[in-house]
Amino acid sequence: MSFNISKKKKEEMLAKITIIKDFIDRNSKVPSLMEYLIMIENEIKNKKYGLVFEEYEEDIRNINEICLSEKKELSIEVAVDGKKNMLIEGENLEALILLIQEYREKINIICIDPPYNTGNKTLKYNDYDYMDLEDEYDHSKWLSFMEKRLKISKDLLVPNGVLFVNIDETQISCLILLCEKIFGEENIDVLIWPKMDPKYDKNRVEKPIFNVKVAHEYVVMCYKNKSSTFFNKMKRRPNHSDFGKPEQLFYMETILNEIGTTSSAKDELNEIFGTRDISITPKPRKMIKEFVRVAAGPNAIILDFFAGSGTTGHAVMDLNKEDGGKRKFILVTDNENNICIEITYERLKRAIYKDNFTENLKYLRIESKQSF
Ligand SMILES: C[S@@+](CC[C@H](N)C(=O)[O-])C[C@H]1O[C@@H](n2cnc3c(N)ncnc32)[C@H](O)[C@@H]1O
Q1: Does the pTM of the predicted model rise above 0.90?
Q2: Is pLDDT at 370 greater than 60 in this prediction?
């Protein structure tokens, strides 16, 4: 039975149930029939209109069982009064449950680039199982996974805070509905990011395509309250195609030209690690820099809980250096294939020393309390 029914259809079904209930009341000797019918009736009554999906549980430890444990040997202290940034290794739902204790309504910007659910072994559901696209509930599982995290994200944001979510065509329709459900329809904007641009794509390796080449992705922008959000301008060149001209300030547009591409983001990792062949698909630093510039002031706290290679941290440090801001970042990522230590942490560390950033970094791991 589909529960995603129109109001009229719902009322018709409830009317039929009433007729069956009367019949069972008068004639049936099987008491459980009435019980079953009442269960179905309640299920239909409880269904709201809009996005309907199955809820899935995750094996997340209780808040009382976990804590953040600082790994002092990995701390980076380059400035006496350096800003305290955090890199948290662990499952991000657990991290969010811990962070909300201290950061409720204190985060200005959240930038996330979650697994796109493309079946590329990017989304581990419940920490043991990769999402299987043959599973007819794969959209439900992804939505359920995202809903829990986005609800806490909203509670973390300051009243004029903004959440940016990168996504591609696989889940864009589901994500928009989910974000509308959590943030309200009036608090959503959808941006298009051209992920290819020959001017940036010096080292791009062309992949074979089937029929239509997908040349863009999306960013869903969710405002805690759009009417009270303060928008700064973003930096780009006067003419998108003119690379010779210096950057100037312009209003953000729904098409995000000139903020780098998938290929240029890999070049950025290459500059640090000497290889483009890293298992994460990073986002360009310029993209995150412009999101942060546009949607918050110079003392903002920025959170990314799908941090991957740490682009968000790098972008925040870059922007602070550029405009003298005192923004801080909190990054969370799991340590799948040693990503957190070998890529995220290592990238931030190398960037700090290479570019003389004045940022300190704390490395924290989510651990069970009983392990102490
Ligand atoms: C698409 S990547 C993000 C890439 C990032 N934007 C960058 O520029 O490098 C998503 C990252 O989130 C991590 N991740 C996925 N599910 C997670 C979870 N439940 N908790 C913590 N990290 C998770 C993955 O390991 C992966 O590194």
Answers
A1: no
A2: yes
